[in-house]
Structures are given as structure tokens and as C-alpha cells.
Design goal:
Pfam families (chain A): CT_A_B (PF02626)
Number of helices of chain B: 5
Distance between the termini of chain A: 37 Å
Protein name (chain A): Allophanate hydrolase, subunit 2
CATH class of the largest domain in chain B: Mainly Beta
InterPro entries (chain A): CT_A_B, Cyclophilin-like_dom_sf, PxpC
Structural class of chain A: alpha+beta
GO molecular function (chain A): ATP binding; hydrolase activity
Keywords (chain A): ATP-binding, Hydrolase, Nucleotide-binding
CATH topology of the largest domain in chain B: Cyclophilin
Strand order of the largest sheet of chain B: 7-6-13-5-12-9-10
Largest sheet of chain A: 7 strands, mixed, barrel
Strand order of the largest sheet of chain A: 12-19-16-17-14-13-20
Order of helices and strands of chain B: EEHEEHEHHEEEEEEEEH
Largest interface: A-B, 42 and 50 residues
Number of strands of chain A: 22
Oligomer: heterodimer
Helix content of chain B: 10-25%
Chain lengths: 331, 228
């Protein structure tokens, strides 16, 4: 049992998301940054899709009323009973220990994973909170959480090599997109503007969507409105203002504004972790290329999982003046 | 008809930009044909008015393969598509439908005419989207079409029945909204503890039935008491 002592910002239980209910209008939800969340789970010996805590900007303070293995993912100060410990590392907390997670130095979303996962009632097949529809709720001080039974699987002392920690500290980020599907609603100029200009994330951004400010994207004579059609997390709608809105994990399932492009799956975490004020440059890739990028990322995540499981070793190698991290082991 | 990528893990099949019962029936027939095929890469399908998204696992399959797999299913017969007939009780006007007088005045009608016209037609559920359980229905009679509010309300109660242009619909959960509210249903449109969680399904034929305040209170208790 874990008791939340203070919750300074949005804190929810999330897992890999809710599938099979989009046709009923229910959003996917799930981890905003699935790379960090999955690594957090691997650090404590869980499968990547296990439910964990996602915090926005500032982490909670909690007391452990039982012995629990945990790990925090994020560029953040972490203390146990007042003593600093490392993020991206798993620890064994004892009964009575107090965990304090500070404010992220970079990025927007941090994760706290527990061996065995956060216990929750699955609603429509998922633990992911989508409070607007009564699917879970934001957590608050005084809430108690149970975690799965993990005496056998939980392990402490697992640490992610420094080079593999995602870096979300940039002031400008290149985000790759697949163009379409509503391109006939834009002029060639409009598409060119979208691909060649810097767009800045505005503060009116949340788990549902990120609004961007920048040069106006010109619509064709067909205009910004379409007959309402399906969209996915990553879809970029351009309403009459000409300013793009990127749909995120809690996006509505369908929308009535023309979609100029969709962010590739592998780059969604980078966008999710970009703070208001960050400059975004969009780069076009073909769907096949997006797939190759995703496959490479999945290979990296699989190597990280095996390394943390002790099935692989990691070596730092210098070649051509650059440092590389190599994994070796049986696959 | 065309097929385009919707990012790296979905494709969009479009039968043109139209709102039409027959085209929509085809969308659902194709959706069911795809779901019935037991494709190992299929995550889910999302139908809308005249288009549907096929969500797939990009680690298992390429866009081109998915396109090839669904193309033969696009000519599927639409004859079998039959929805349920569902009656939605509505308490029109008063505090539950604060805009009904505006809708009447705007169209040069009496409030009773608005109720009669709105409840006098059968609507088909074309798809669910926007919010969990929110049904996109076939259009209302031109005589009661009314533009949206200039300033959307910050909170529209769950169950509110509204009109926006020729669209009509029911807010399944409390949310902001700019539709003209003409009444409210005591039924729960979305309940995550039920299976299926939504009262309405695509293809259903919906009729709105005017009820009294007593009936509203009784039905509301039956639907919501156990949940409060």
C-alpha cells in the first residue's frame, strides 16, 4: 500500500491505452511518452504496458506502507527519506519510507513505476485515466494505491545507461510526419508553409491536444471544414485560423477540421515532452520510412529490456570520434 | 473511393465527403467485413459518416499490405445492415431545454411545433465520435434548424438534447458545448460499467419521445440512483 501525501499537479494512472472502443467515441488515452513509461516499467521488471503513475511537471510525495520496488523516469530530483537518489534506477523502499519527486528540469511528463504495477480497476479493458468520461480520475493527496505482488520479480539496482536516457531539453525539436489525408483542403503554398516554418507550442495544450502558433497555413478553396472523419493521436488538424493543432493521447476519435499530416509514432514522445514555447519543425517522411524508424526504436527498447533483465550486456565503444553503446548477448 | 495513410499505423478509406444513409451503411458494412477477417495486425476500425479508419500494428504489416488486404472487401453488400429501434424519452423545454424558445422564435414557430417536429422523425445513428457515446444522427427537419450559440456554454449537463444547424444530438457526459439545448433525457448515454458502455450504436434508429417532468424524475432515478 502506498499513500499519496501531496500531489502538486496532474497525476494519473496510465497504461498502454484503451483499444477497441474508438468506434464508440472513447479515446485511446495511455502514456503520453511511451518510451519513458516503458523503460520505467522495465527498470522494475514489469512488462512495458503495465499501469504506472504519470505526473505533469511536478511529482508527488508518498509514503510506502509496505516494501515496494520502484523507479522514477524523468529529468528530476528524487529523494527517499530526504536523501537524494537517482532517477532511471530501481530501488527497494521499506515500510515507512517517504519518496519525494521534484519538478522536472526538462520535459513535461514523468513516470513512477512499481514492481507488479499499480493495481486498478480496468474500465473498458484499460487502467488509463480519462476523467471526462468517468474512466478513472486524477489522483489527490490522501489516496491510497495498491501495487501488484512482486516479491519474486521486483529487483532493485537496475539503472539505465546515461547515453540511453531520452533528452527532452531542446528549445527546438524536429518532428517527423506523414502528410495527409486531407491535402486537397490546402494549397501547395499552405503545405510548404507547414513544412518550412517553425511552430511554437502554446500554453493551451494538454493530454487532448497541443495548439501551435506560427505562420498561417493556407487552405484551398475547399476550406478548413471536412465532413467529420476519424483521426488518431498525432493527427494535425488545421482549423480556419490556419494554426495547427496536434491531437494527443486523449484526442477525440473523429474531427471536422482538415488534417494536413500525422506525427509518426516514434516521434510522439518527443512532441509530448516539449514544453510550451518549444519550437517545432515538421519534416515529411513516407509511411514506409516511419515504419522503419519505429522498428529501430522497438529494437532499442527490446535491447534495453534485455539489458535490464541481465540477458544482454552493454559496452561503450569509441569509433570515428564518436561514442557508441553496443549491446551484446543472445537474442 | 480512395485509401490514404493516416499516419504510420492507420489508413483512411473514404467514400467521398457526403452525409448520406446509404453511404454510411456501406461504411459500416466494410467495417464489419474487415473486423470479421481475423487479420492478426488489426487493432480496431473507426467508422464515421462516409469514411473509416483501419488502425493496424505497423510492426506486423506495411501500409501497402493493409491496403491490399482491405481492397477486396470494399464492394461488400450493405443489405444486411439493420439497427435497433430505440426510443429516447425527452423532457422538452423549461430549465432542461433553455433554448427551445429561441429555436421556436428563430424559425417562426411555437414551442409545441418544435417538439412535434423534433420528435416526429426517425433518425439514424451514423457513427459515434467527439465524446464517448456521442451519436452523430441523420439531420433534423429544415424547419427547426438553428445556428449554434455565439458563446458556447462552459458546462452542458449530461443528457442534454441540442440542435446545431441541421444536426441534433445528446450530450452523453457533462462537457462544454455550443448547441441550442431544447430538452434533456434521463437516460445514461455512456456508462463504462455497462457492456456495451454506450446506449446507442451505429445503425440504430432513434425516436425522441416527449415525457412529463414526473416521468423524467422516475426514469432518472432508475438510471442514475445506483451510480450516485
Amino acid at each position: 500500500m502506498i499513500e499519496l501525501l501531496s500531489v502538486p499537479s496532474l497525476l494519473t494512472v496510465q497504461d498502454a491505452g484503451r483499444t477497441g472502443y474508438r468506434k464508440l467515441g472513447v479515446p485511446v488515452s495511455g502514456f503520453m511518452d511511451d518510451f519513458s513509461a516503458r523503460v520505467a516499467n522495465y527498470l522494475v521488471g514489469n512488462p512495458g504496458d503495465f499501469p504506472l503513475l504519470e505526473f505533469l511537471l511536478a511529482g508527488p510525495k508518498m509514503r510506502f506502507n509496505a516494501s515496494v520496488v520502484f523507479a522514477v523516469a524523468g529529468d528530476v530530483d528524487v529523494r527517499i527519506n530526504g536523501t537524494p537518489i537517482e532517477p532511471w534506477t530501481s530501488y527497494w523502499a521499506k515500510r515507512g519510507d517517504i519518496l519525494e519527486v521534484g519538478t522536472l528540469r526538462s520535459g513535461l511528463y514523468g513516470y513512477i513505476a512499481f514492481a507488479g504495477g499499480v493495481k486498478c480497476e480496468k474500465l473498458l479493458g484499460s487502467c488509463s485515466a480519462y476523467p471526462r468520461a468517468g474512466l478513472g480520475r486524477p489522483l489527490k493527496a490522501g489516496d491510497r494505491l495498491s501495487v501488484g505482488y512482486a516479491l519474486l520479480t521486483g529487483r532493485e539496482g537496475c539503472s539505465l545507461p546515461r547515453k540511453l536516457k531520452p533528452d527532452y531539453s531542446g528549445d527546438s525539436v524536429e518532428i517527423r510526419v506523414v502528410l495527409g489525408p486531407d491535402l486537397e483542403h490546402f494549397t501547395e503554398n499552405g503545405i510548404e508553409t507547414f513544412l518550412s516554418s517553425a511552430y511554437v507550442i502554446t500554453p493551451e495544450s494538454d493530454r487532448m491536444g497541443y495548439r501551435l502558433e506560427g505562420p498561417v497555413i493556407e487552405h484551398s478553396e475547399k476550406g478548413p471544414d471536412i465532413v467529420t472523419s476519424p483521426l488518431v493521436p498525432g493527427s494535425i488538424q488545421v482549423p480556419g485560423s490556419g494554426r495547427p493543432i496536434v491531437m494527443m493521447r486523449d484526442a477525440q476519435t473523429t474531427g471536422g477540421y482538415a488534417k494536413i499530416a500525422t506525427v509518426i509514432t516514434a516521434d510522439l514522445p518527443f512532441l509530448a515532452q516539449s514544453r510550451p514555447g518549444t519550437e517545432i519543425m515538421f519534416k515529411r517522411v513516407a509511411p514506409e520510412e516511419a515504419r522503419e524508424i519505429l522498428k529501430r526504436r522497438e529494437k532499442t527498447l527490446e535491447a534495453i529490456r534485455k539489458f535490464l533483465d541481465g540477458e544482454m550486456r552493454a559496452y561503450s565503444v569509441r569509433a570515428l570520434g564518436k561514442e557508441f553503446l553496443l549491446f551484446a548477448g543472445k537474442i | 473511393m480512395n485509401i490514404k495513410p493516416l499516419g504510420d499505423s492507420a489508413l483512411l478509406i473514404s467514400f467521398g465527403e457526403v452525409i448520406d444513409d446509404e453511404v454510411n451503411a456501406r461504411v459500416h458494412a466494410v467495417a464489419r467485413a474487415i473486423e470479421g477477417k481475423d487479420f492478426g495486425w488489426l487493432v480496431e476500425v473507426v467508422p464515421a459518416y462516409s469514411s473509416l479508419a483501419v488502425i493496424f500494428d505497423p510492426l506486423k504489416v506495411t501500409f501497402e499490405d493493409v491496403k491490399k488486404a482491405v481492397e477486396p472487401l470494399l464492394d461488400v453488400s450493405t443489405g444486411a445492415f439493420k439497427g435497433r429501434k430505440i426510443e429516447i424519452p425527452v423532457l422538452y423545454g423549461g430549465e432542461y431545454g433553455p433554448d427551445i424558445e429561441f429555436v421556436a422564435e428563430y424559425n417562426g414557430l411555437g414551442v409545441d411545433d418544435v417538439i412535434e417536429i423534433h420528435s416526429g422523425k426517425t433518425y439514424r445513428v451514423h457513427f459515434l465520435g467527439f465524446l464517448p457515446g456521442f451519436a452523430y444522427l441523420s439531420p433534423v427537419d429544415e424547419r427547426i434548424a438553428t445556428p449554434r450559440l455565439e458563446r458556447p456554454r462552459l458546462k452542458v449537463p449530461a443528457g442534454s438534447v441540442g440542435i446545431a444547424g441541421r444536426q441534433t444530438g445528446i450530450y452523453p457526459i457533462e462537457s462544454p458545448g455550443g448547441w441550442r439545448l431544447i430538452g434533456r433525457t434521463p437516460l445514461r448515454l455512456f456508462d463504462p460499467s455497462r457492456e456495451p458502455p454506450t446506449l446507442l450504436q451505429p445503425g440504430d434508429e432513434v425516436r425522441f419521445v416527449p415525457i412529463s417532468e414526473e416521468e423524467f424524475v422516475e426514469l432518472y432515478r432508475g438510471e442514475w440512483r445506483s451510480k450516485q
